[in-house]
Each structure stands twice: as C-alpha cells, then as structure tokens.
From TrEMBL:
Monomer. Keywords: Cell outer membrane, Chaperone, Lipoprotein, Membrane, Palmitate, Protein transport, Signal, Transport. This is Outer-membrane lipoprotein LolB. Belongs to the LolB family. It comes from Ottowia testudinis. Coiled coil: none annotated.
C-alpha cells in the first residue's frame, strides 16, 4: 500500500508561494475514507512540472522514504535499497504508491494558485498565501483529502 509513515514536522529545503517557482517543500498528508480509514504524512520536496519532475518524501527524522521521478512515458519509484519500480506515468506511479488516483498534474497548478479542474476533486486555494492547500475528492470512492503545508 502506501509507503509514507509517521508525522512529519520539518523539512530542510525552502519553498515559496506563488506562480514563479517550480520547487516546493513542506509537509503533506493524505487521508482515505476507506474501511478502515487510512492516513499518511511525510515531509516532501517537489520540483519540476507535470511532464518532468521529482518528488522526494522523507520521514520525521530526515531519512528518505521514497523518490519519484518522471518524464514523458516513464516514471520511476525508488525506496531505500529496493529495486526501482518503473511505471508508464506519474499518475500510474502515484496510484500504485497510494492505492488511489491522485491529481499530480493539477497539484503543480494548485501550488501556483491556478484553478485546475479535475473530475471529482475540489481544491481550496484560499489559504495558499499562508502556505496551506487542501484538496478533497468525493468521487470515485473512497473519498480522499490531500493536505499540504508549505515551508516558508
């Protein structure tokens, strides 16, 4: 299932809020309203764009949990000493990693303050100026909530 564990408190990389960046860092959390409910969180560093980028997830003590890298037609998941797993897209990789579809492409727009329409998802960008983003998926089930708190 999902490889993120723990409750993240810090990230060492800086981030900014706004449309002029392609790098963000902070904490993210994902809650799935499944039976039983599931909740995951980690520190993150995200760079690039929907077509080519990298997402690194770290534990509260700073160890790397996973690195996801993608480019057109290919996405790679690396977790510790395990053999890298390859996928045809970042969307396929994200679904494998979390067990549910996530709007990775839209996340870049949301973090820049851009309204992105994704079927089933509602993003609340009203607190982005203070470094907070919430997105909720009602369909397909199970419902999911993605929370992002950006580093200053």
């Amino acid at each position: 299932m999902f490889f993120i564990a723990g409750c993240a408190n810090q990230s060492s990389a800086g981030g900014s809020f706004g449309s002029d960046t392609n790098h963000w860092s902070g904490r993210l959390g994902l809650t799935l309203e499944s039976e039983p409910p599931q909740s995951f969180s980690a520190s993150f560093a995200l760079s690039g764009n929907p077509q080519a980028g990298e997402l690194t997830l770290t534990s509260p003590i700073g160890s790397t949990l996973a690195v996801m890298q993608w480019q057109p037609g290919r996405a790679v998941l690396r977790q510790g000493e395990q053999t890298a797993r390859h996928y045809e897209s970042i969307d396929a990789l994200a679904q494998y990693a979390t067990g549910t579809p996530l709007p990775v492409g839209a996340l870049f727009g949301w973090l820049r303050g851009e309204t992105q329409s994704v079927p089933g998802w509602q993003a609340d960008l009203s607190q982005l100026a203070t470094g907070r983003l919430n997105a909720r998926r009602l369909m397909p089930l199970p419902a999911a909530e993605l929370r992002v708190v950006l580093d200053r």
